[in-house]
Amino acid sequence: MPVLRLPSGLRPLRGSARRPQAKESPRGAQRLEARTVTGQAARPLADEAARRRIREALDESQLVEAAAGTGKTTVLVERLVAILEQGLGRVDGLAAVTFTRKAAGELKLRLREELDKRLLALRAAGVADRRTRNLEAAISRLEEASIGTIHSLCAEILRERPVEAGVDPGFGELAEDEAPRLFNRAFRSWIEEQLESMPPGLRRELARLTAGPWSSRQPPLDRLRDTAWRLVEWRDFPSSWRGPDFDRGEQLVDLAARVERLADLLRHGRRGDILRRGLDRVVELAAWIARARELGVSGPNGSGAEAEGGEAVRDQLEARLVELQRRLSGYGAPRKGRGGFAEGVARDQVWELWKRLAERLEEFVEVADADLAALLRDELAGAVERYEEAKNSLGKLDFHDLLIKARDLLRSDRTVRAHLQQRYSHLFIDEFQDTDPLQAEILLLLAADSPEQDDWTEVRPAAGKLFVVGDPKQSIYRFRRADVVLYHDVKEMLADRGVEVLHLTTSFRSVAPIQRVVNMAFEPLMTGDHDAGSADYIALGEHREPIPGQPGVIALPPPRPYGSRNLSNREIEACQPYATVEFVRWLIEDSNFEVEVPDPDRPGHRMRSRIRPRDVCLLFRRFLSWNRDTSREYVRGLEAVGIPHLLLGARSFHEREEVEALRSALKAVEWPDDDLSVYATLRGGLFAFDDELLLLFKARHGTWHPFRGPRRAREDGEPPEEFRSLVEVLDFLAELHRRRNYRPIVRTVQEVLARPRAQASMALRPAGNQVLGNAQRVCDLARRYELAGGRSFRGFVEQLDEEAERPASTQAPVVEEDAEGVRIMTVHTAKGLEFPVVILADMTAGLSRGAERTVRPEDGLCAMRLLGLSPQELLDAKEIEDRREEAEGVRVAYVAATRARDLLVVPAVGDAQRKGWVQCLNEAVYPPAGQWRQSEPAEGCPAFGERTVARRPHDYENQPEMSVRPGRHSFPGVAGEGGDTGHDVVWWDAELLDEEPPASYGLLGEDLLVEAGDDANRERFERWRRHGEELVARSSEPSVSPVAVTELECEPPGKSVDVAIEELARSGRRPGGKRFGSLVHTVLRDASLSGEASRIGELARLHGALIGSTAAEVTASAAVVTAALASPAAEAARTSQRVLRETPFLLPLDGEAEHRIVEGAIDLAYLDDDGGWIVVDWKTDLGDLGTPAGASRDSGVTRGERYRRQVRWYCYALEQLTGTPASGRLVLL
Fold first, then answer.
1. Is residue 884 domain-shared with residue 798, that is, in the same domain?
2. 1023: which residues sit within 8 A by CB, 6+ positions away?
3. Is residue 951 within 8 Å of 910, Cβ to Cβ?
4. Does residue 515 lie in a domain region?
5. Residue 472 sits in which domain range?
6. CA-CA distances (angstroms) from residue 17 to 13, 28, 30?
7. Going edge to edge, which strands form the sheet with 146-149?
8. What would the mean pLDDT of 1177-1201 be, rounded to a whole number?
9. Would you tell me which of 103, 493, 692, 1173 could form a disulfide with 98, CB atoms 3.0–4.6 Å apart?
10. pLDDT of 49 higher than 70
11. Taking each helix axis from N to C terminus, what angle separates 437-447 and 399-412, rounded to the nearest 10 degrees?
């Protein structure tokens, strides 16, 4: 056989054996050397000196600030290998602390690989000395190295010294999801006791929770439980909060008097007055105060009972005042209105009284909140203590206990401290920017050069012992206690005590255009103000050149960002998901874009390939917004277009169809009397009986009960054939009910899935991997429930229901990392990961949420918002804490942008810059204002149109195009030693994205049918699909199509009607536009035909206030209406026997294939002396009737001809509906 030798670097194309070569070749791959630029040699690293020092200066402790993608894990492993090779430390004396278990596992693998490589390299060079012996010893004992999370290190210390630490030698660790369940049980027993005694803070808060419009999905006690859990997470900060100087009784009396004074004035106003209507809640509260006073005075109870009842009344009054302030501020604030308010009561007087009350309410709420927060914190501390008791009784420690106990042990016991400092010769700490004060204290005490020092802030690290890697620009876990201010303080402390600070800047991850966008966007925002939590910005150094023939950064505009008039976040949220899905579809199916991915055949090398679903990641700032899952529409869109996806850590786990079906089945097993659960099980995705069969069974046998239903169906022998399958399923549910508490819970769950062969159907559904993972997750929850001590099937079902009712449920499915599919995750989940293509989603999410807590470690104080209550310490520090939260938001955006390797896609509205979590990138994405309409063709992209907004309101129709023009926009950079730093951004054409994905129905089993080669099944499938398509097509055609008269471009049937034109005296200076026309027509509708000037003016002011008209529009509308009612047409109408005004109509058009219905409203119609209708149409348009009409400009129809055609349609409709002939008159006002 002849042998074909391929040139160096050329590999045979690998593809699916079942896929034709003609289809495979376009997705061929060009293989590249790792970290090299195509066609160029690797450039020298700008930070090579720092990297060399890390490898070689092993006798000095170092803190390395490694920017995103700079290879911090690589340098950490290289230093580890060098220490072991030189014999400066043994494996069992090393401790490497990572942020996650996954990172720890990867670090162990990398260390083993590098040790093997180094040993092989020395042997190949003929070296056989102490270095090889050291490496061999390290490899043989590698499992003895302490490589793991900070929690695993602390657990190791406590297990070694349990007596000194004061813990049970056989203590168990509570899993992350077990600790909240144990706390729930402890809280339940605690709150039952508290409800008996009702301490003041709890009583006041319950009054507020029951008075406010809180979500019905989370009852007040559940909100209290979640608040107490937050205190559990910060229990190592035990200091109480300071209460403000607050005389609640005196302030309540003062505010009640102010409310009643204002209500007395408001009662004189008309009910329809805008100010009176806006302050109705004040009147209601005053009435409640009066009733409470009457009950207090005339109550039959003695003084003790009256005092107790008085406290309850004061609590309710406080709650109602707080609710009043919240309802009447912001968007709910009342409007002053115009004109007189009531006889003897001036509007200004009422408004001034309200403004003074609003100011006092705002002051009261702030102080009352701070007072209640301090009270509530001290009272909820009892729930924290009850949780501690529950853990102690079980011999359990949660993750936080591991840190607290280890910290206390190191701080208090010199002998233990000395032993551990000697045991760990080297400490390696990764992601140091995400550590909290507790973790920092533990690690620095272990690194100290002397056991005499027990104050971590005074520690001097031993020479060469400490190696810290971090990046303050990527500190994004403030909500998990990470503190970038602490990082800066520790960094300065270590630098002052001999620790060398190094910087890694060369990033191997992103192509140059992405790095330049990141540098341009974030360098001005990261100012280095350490007090405000801002990081020092060090620009990313370039290493990778862009992939030729395609952009590196794309701006993706939502195609329909407008509401009825202005840009709207609601509309952006509605259209951005399907626009993103359409772009992803084009990227994967139609584009020729390439990305660099690892070469599976040559480890350490990379190759170029066409984009696959797994190469794309959608990054979200949040998954939950006002109890709404922000990822849901993206997921549905991807499923609709048949693109697989993996949803990681989404908050809608319990809302997934497969999980809801499984929960319903488990409830039916536990409660067979629950008809709704049984019906949901039978009708849902597991068994899928149709409604007709279920209702027929219920009608014949009276029940679906799993015990009684089958028994009644068998009264006359075997059940009918049509019911046999249903009866078998009911028997199955009954058998599961009998055996549910006599076997493992997971076995019952598995049988529920196995009986209908649910796994097979789930695998065929869109995103089958995800669906199967969700089902498997329920099985995992069952196992964990039993391992945590759960004893009953009912308890497990109730636990599932409790988690489903929580808006923040975060159960994540189990999925294979290598599974195909677009990754969907939050930025926090993506931390430490990278993806060839990153698309930023949910652009309306805010940059920050404002101050949530303030921490003073030196005082043991953490003051946080509880149930919306800000303690006094947080109020005092609000300005600086708000700045720190905003700085955190900037860092989140930085982390998101630096996840991309080859393509970064940023959402951006074409008409204006918008605020949100991606606003940090605006300056690097939007061209200068004068260059928005200047763009060049974009290489590798489809042909673009002229605008990046596909749809706008009608008000914008005749305006010049103002959006950023689609195409490539160039941004100049600064020329220097590193070359030009300019970059390009391609703005996408919104018209190409303005297409909603099709609805997704049924199974995706066509590929399986094709591969199976079963012609009979294939034919059956085709018939089923065609039938479904026909049904959908017929259902998609409307039986009736309504059309407005103003939209008709044809003449009415029959004889043409003459339309007379009557033009009244008009002023070209008066206002115009749609709002003015609406105001005139509304006043004409309500005004009497007699034309009373005073009444017309009053109506104009009223309707003008309702629609926000200007004073000039109100005055002009009154004059126009007065003139209209004095016109000959109105004069004739006043003397007519029958008059129609503003009369709506619907007229079916017979004999049309489209089955249209004409709808409209006739301004005025009256019967003349001959008995015929005269139809009058008022027009406020100031335009020339001879000019072309807007929508029909191309057809040559003038404005006047269009108006006359509308009047002829009104005449035709009135004649058809009444049987009386009609003629028209067009009156120009």
1. no
2. none
3. no
4. no
5. 47-164+414-506
6. 12, 15, 20
7. 146-149, 94-98, 426-429, 466-470, 62-66, 500-504
8. 73
9. 103
10. yes
11. 40
Look at residue 1051 and tell me whether its pLDDT is greater than 60: yes
Amino acid symbol at 1019: E
Half-sphere exposure of 71 (CA within 13 A, CB side): 19
The β-bridge partners of 861 are: 856
| Residues 981 and 1052 occupy one common structural domain | no
Domain match, 121 and 265 both? no
Give every strand in the sheet of 553-556, ordered side by side: 645-647, 822-826, 616-620, 835-840, 900-907, 553-556, 983-987, 967-971
Place of tokens 């109870």: 301
Pick from 388, 422, 451: which residue ends a domain?
Answer: 388
In a domain, 3, yes or no: no
pLDDT the model gives residue 19 = 33
Count of positions (residues) in the chain: 1229
CATH number, domain at 934? 3.40.50
Span 150-200, pLDDT tens digits: 999 999 999 999 999 999 999 999 887 788 889 999 999 999 999 998 999
pLDDT at 31 over 50: no
Give residue 133's pLDDT band: very low, low, confident or very high (50, 70, 90): very high
- Do 838 and 793 sit in the same domain of this protein? no
Residue 636 contacts residue 1000 (beta carbons within 8 Å):
yes
Dump pLDDT digits (tens) for 317-338: 999 999 999 999 888 899 988 8
- Mean of all residue pLDDT scores within the chain: 86
Whether 862 is covered by a domain: the verdict is yes
The Cα diameter of the chain in Å comes to: 123
CA gap 650, 811 in Å, rounded: 8
CATH of the domain at 92: 3.40.50.300
Q: Are residues 232 and 352 in the same domain?
A: yes
Joined tokens for residue 630: 């922000």
Q: Where are the alpha helices (DSSP H) in 214-302?
A: 220-233, 248-266, 274-278, 280-298
Q: 1097 and 1198 share a domain?
A: no
Upper half-sphere CA count for residue 881 (Cβ side, 13 Å): 21
DSSP code of residue 1188: B
Please state the domain count of the chain: 6
* Span 1054-1076, pLDDT tens digits: 888 889 988 888 776 788 878 88
Q: Between vectors from CA 794 to CA 790 and to CA 796, what angle results, nearest 5°?
A: 50
Strands of 384-520, DSSP E: 396-397, 426-429, 466-470, 500-504
| pLDDT, tens digit (0-9, with 9 covering 90-100), for 988-1007 | 999 999 887 665 544 444 55
Q: Which amino acid is at 260?
A: E
Asked whether residue 514 is assigned to any structural domain, the reply reads no
What the block records as the tokens of 1083 is: 């006043």
Nearest to 1159 by CA among 1143, 1175, 1179: 1143
pLDDT of residue 11: 36
pLDDT of residue 764: 66
Tokens standing for 815?
Answer: 């999925």
CA-nearest of 815, 841, 814 to 826 is 841
Pair 828, 741 in one domain: no
Q: Does residue 99 share a domain with residue 64?
A: yes
Cα(1095)–Cα(880) distance, integer angstroms: 57
Whole-number pLDDT of residue 10: 38
